[in-house]
Amino acid sequence: MSVEVCAKDAEYPEYRKIFWGKRDAFKAEPLGKAIRSRTETWEPIFTPGHAKDHMVYLNHNNGVLFSGDLFVTQKQSLSYGKSRSR
C-alpha cells in the first residue's frame, strides 16, 4: 500500500505543506520479514489505526519497540500555522 503512495507526489492539506514542505514522488522498497541494522534485527509489524498503513518495529533481542508518531508527555503541545490567543 505505502509503496504505491510513495510513487506519487504527496497530496495533503495546506497546513501540512506549510510545516513539512512538498513531498515529491520517490521509489520505495517493500518491507521484508526483517530489517537489519549494523548490530540489531527489527521485525516490522503491521498495526493499522489512525493510518491504514501504520507499522511498528520490534527488536526481540532487547524488547525495544519503535512505534507511533506522537510522543506522549504529561503536557501536550500543538503547533499551529498562526498564533492563537488564549
Automatic annotation (TrEMBL):
<feature type="domain" description="Metallo-beta-lactamase">
    <location>
        <begin position="34"/>
        <end position="76"/>
    </location>
</feature>
<dbReference type="InterPro" id="IPR036866">
    <property type="entry name" value="RibonucZ/Hydroxyglut_hydro"/>
</dbReference>
<protein>
    <recommendedName>
        <fullName>Metallo-beta-lactamase domain-containing protein</fullName>
    </recommendedName>
</protein>
<dbReference type="InterPro" id="IPR001279">
    <property type="entry name" value="Metallo-B-lactamas"/>
</dbReference>
<dbReference type="Pfam" id="PF00753">
    <property type="entry name" value="Lactamase_B"/>
</dbReference>
